Amino acid sequence: MGWSSHHHSNGLIHYSPQQAYRGYTLITNLNGHDTRLIDMEGRVCHAWHSGEGISYAYLLPTGNLLLRTGPAAEETSFLSRPEQELLPNRGRTVSGAILELDWESNVVWEYRYPLLHHDFQRLPNGNTLVLIWELLPDEMVRNVKGGHGDYQGMLGDVVQEVTPAGEVVYEWKSWEHLDYGEDRICFLEGRGEWTHQNTLNVTPDGDLVVSFRQTDTVGIVDRASGDFRWKWGPGNISHQHNPVMLDSGRVLLFDNGPHKSGFTHSRVIEVEPDTSEIAWEYRGDPPISFYSYHISGAERQPNGNTLICEGAPGRIFEVTPGKEIVWEYINPFMAASGFGVGGSLSGLANSVFRAHRYGHDHPALQGKDLDPDNYANLNRLYA
Predict the structure, then answer these.
(1) For the segment 220-270, what is each residue's pLDDT rounded down to a tens digit?
(2) What pLDDT score does 89 carry?
(3) How far is residue 35 from each of residues 60, 104, 168, 183, measured CA to CA in Å?
């Protein structure tokens, strides 16, 4: 979408009540301190705040908010120098903790580790899957192909399952299941990381659904063996985010598209793992009108529509299976963006890592006060 300093349209810009999936949309500014729940009219109905920052969050069935914070505030000198220097975007994509907040923003659970990043999942057994970085052995780094730059080390991605008490009871080290020939780093990316995992979802059977930005790869990992049951992407997608398994068994994902051949644009696709064929696709019209270099995601709604988060410009919109836009919202709230990828010269941006829609009957919302008049001043300010 185009940008202009004189274009001030934000908040709700389109809504078709007959076709949209009605509910509340959860939005968090990347690198901000607040998460907001908005209704279909774009009015804030509830908000959470964390002084440690909120980079991404979603609702648990209890109505509590599970989130990852900003970078650890405490000194991280116990990290090796390579670990500190290799953190992407000078450490802005790392989180110090996973927090669970109640409806009033009180911390009711926390897990702290200074190399947490990107994604996390609360499991049915009450444990939590987290994603961390770990420094790879030098002999392994020499065999990894692709990328550019002279880095003194390389980070790899690890999935861990932690109990409510913080005990690690499961671990999957990505590099133990990768192939030096197949899993090549994009030549336009640095060699500070091998994979840069940006998604951690689970299938109904409990297997892992992963996304590796550096190698343009998505996959389904057998939890028991750690091996890939399906692995796909290079040459078909570019620096994608948020693959999630649908009830049909297909995988929905956001294909960011920054380093693919041809003109730059993003798309949302639905892939059949058995054949690796694309069964459904959404692009902008013209395609260049829909693009986010980084972050972003897509979520299938109960009525078959798809909620899309075009993360970098803070645009969240809903499309029908026929690709008609039936709800569209531009995040009017700003947070510190920093410089570098996704940053701005002003140091502020409305970027959103990922958004979620919750229907009126969702367990998290039952018995909750969702009166937008509670936030009347805020809603008038950003109307």
Answers:
(1) 999 999 999 999 999 999 999 999 999 999 999 999 999 998 889 999 999
(2) 65
(3) 14, 12, 28, 36
**How many whole angstroms separate alpha carbon 38 and alpha carbon 50?**
18
% of residues, the chain, pLDDT over 90: 85
Q: In whole angstroms, what is the distance from residue 43 CA to residue 27 CA? A: 12
This prediction has a pTM of: 0.95
Q: Are 146 and 213 in contact (CB under 8 A)?
A: no
Residue with tokens 């911390």: 107
Determine the Cα–Cα distance for residues 6 and 331; give it in Å rounded to an integer.
16
Query: Does the pLDDT of residue 339 top 50, yes or no?
Result: no
Tell me how far apart the alpha carbons of residues 87 and 61 are, in angstroms, rounded to a whole number. 33
Distant-in-sequence contacts of 280-283, Cβ < 8 A, 24+ apart: 280/321, 282/306, 282/308, 282/319, 282/323
Dump the DSSP string for 69-86.
-SS-SS--TTS-HHHHHH
Distances (CA, A) of 160 to 28, 133, 275, 340, 381: 24, 11, 30, 29, 42
What backbone phi and psi angles, to 5 degrees, belong to 212?
-110, 110
Predicted local distance difference test score (pLDDT) of residue 24: 98
- The C-alpha torsion from 165 through 167 and 170 to 173, rounded to 10°, is 120
Using CB atoms within 10 Å of the CB of residue 44, give its burial: 0 to 12 exposed, 13 to 18 middle, 19+ buried.
Answer: buried
**Eight-state DSSP code of residue 66:** E
Q: Which residues of 352-376 are buried (b: 16+ CB within 10 A; e: fewer)?
A: bbbbbbbeeeeebbeeeeeebeebe
Of the given ranges (137-141, 278-282, 344-348, 376-380), which has the lowest mean pLDDT?
344-348
- Do 58 and 66 form a contact (C-beta atoms < 8 A)? yes
Provide, for the chain, the percentages of residues in helix, strand and coil under a 3-state DSSP scheme, each rounded to the nearest 5: 10, 45, 45
Average pLDDT, the chain: 93
**Cβ burial, residue 230 (10 Å; 0-12/13-18/19+):** middle
266/383 Cα distance (integer angstroms) = 29
